[in-house]
Amino acid sequence: MAIVQMEQITKHYRMGGQRFTALQHISLEVQQGEFVAIQGPSGSGKSTLMNIMGCLDTADSGTYMLEGRRVSAMSDNQLADVRNRRIGFIFQNYNLIPSLTAYDNVELPLIYRGVPANQRKQAVLETLESVGLSGHLHHRPAELSGGQQQRVAIARALATNPSILLADEPTGALDSHTGKEIMALLAKLHAEGHTIILITHDQAVASYADRVLYIRDGAIA
């Protein structure tokens, strides 16, 4: 089953009065259970593609079907619901709330979703244990290493049981050893059945995926 189906996706921006093409005629599919890497240099369009995949931005033309639903036909509320329930985001700089503990950061999207307290507690404890952080529930981000913060971010993404884990340069802020640990964790999650789409400029990181798509100058190379 194809979770992501994109046909002829194009995106333009205006910068300094000039029109800039970020994506041109992108067509791709991602099947349920796949681990796909989208690799390209800085400025290639991969972050724009990730934003459209994650329903954080919209294409100017083309068709994006997510789990069989046309994204362009969704209302703002429906898009927000998709981002909260169907897509688990993992960012380069973690995007954790500094004043909250690891437990609270993972719990937050479940609160937004309206999950009852007892179910939230079970989901938070299970996901933090799955990423090896059951002993750091009450630590705030400043009290954790970079690798531990990224594990919290992965647990937060997993807690809502999403259809897709969308990882944008997940090792970009980490040293090489810690980066390998995070990629090993993502590989483990894939082996457990999770669908993962990874955005990266790093060939070594992309090599963990089953399939690599190369993007250059806004097009699949």
TrEMBL record:
Membrane-traversing stretches: none
Keyword check for ATP-binding: yes
Stored SUPFAM superfamilies: P-loop containing nucleoside triphosphate hydrolases
One protein family per Pfam: ABC_tran
UniProt cross-references to InterPro entries, sorted A to Z: AAA+_ATPase (IPR003593), ABC_transporter-like_ATP-bd (IPR003439), ABC_transporter-like_CS (IPR017871), ABC_transpr_LolD-like (IPR015854), MacB-like_ATP-bd (IPR017911), P-loop_NTPase (IPR027417)
Species the sequence originates in: Paenibacillus catalpae
Domain ABC transporter: 4-221
SMART domains the record matches: AAA (SM00382)
Record GO terms (molecular function): ATP binding; ATP hydrolysis activity; transmembrane transporter activity
This protein's UniProt keywords: ATP-binding, Nucleotide-binding, Transport
Protein name: Putative ABC transport system ATP-binding protein
Keyword Phosphoprotein: no
One cellular component (GO) term of this entry: plasma membrane
